[in-house]
Amino acid sequence: MAQATHSVIVPLSVETVWNFVSQIENWATLVPAYKEHEQIDDKKSVWTFEGNMKGIKKTVKMELEIIEFSEPNNIKFTLTGLTDNFKGSGQFQAEEVDGGTNMIGTVEAAAGGISGAVLNPMIKMVLPKVTTRLTEKIARTMQA
Hints:
The chain is α+β, with helices and mostly antiparallel strands. The chain has helices at 14-21, 24-27, 116-143, and strands spanning 2-10, 34-39, 44-53, 56-70, 74-81, 86-97, 100-111.
C-alpha cells in the first residue's frame, strides 16, 4: 500500500486548525483533481475527481467515511473506490508547537483486482504530491 505524509506548521492554535479541518466542507474543494462531492451524512460523503494521467482522462468516484473524531487533534477516515477497485485511509493530526500548530496529513491507498497492477505504480507516484498539495492548501486557506 502506498503511503504519503506531509506536515506544515501554521501560526494558529490547535483549536483553530480543528475548527477548520473537522468540517469537510471547508477543505473538500482543496483536494487536487476535485470535481464535486455529495455529503451523505455527518460522516460519509461521495467524492468525484477528474484527472489526466499521461494523456488519459479519468473520472474517479470514492466514498470517504470519517471513522474517528478525536477533538482537537485527530481525524481519521477511510477511502473506498466506487468506480475503481481501491481502498485507503488517512488522517489529519494537529500538534501544538511553539508559535502554532504542526498539521500532519497522511494518506494511504492501494488498488486491487486486475487493474491493481497498473494503478498501484501510479498511486505510489501521485500520492506524495497530492498529500503535500492538500496539506499546504489547507494551511494557506486557514491563514487567509
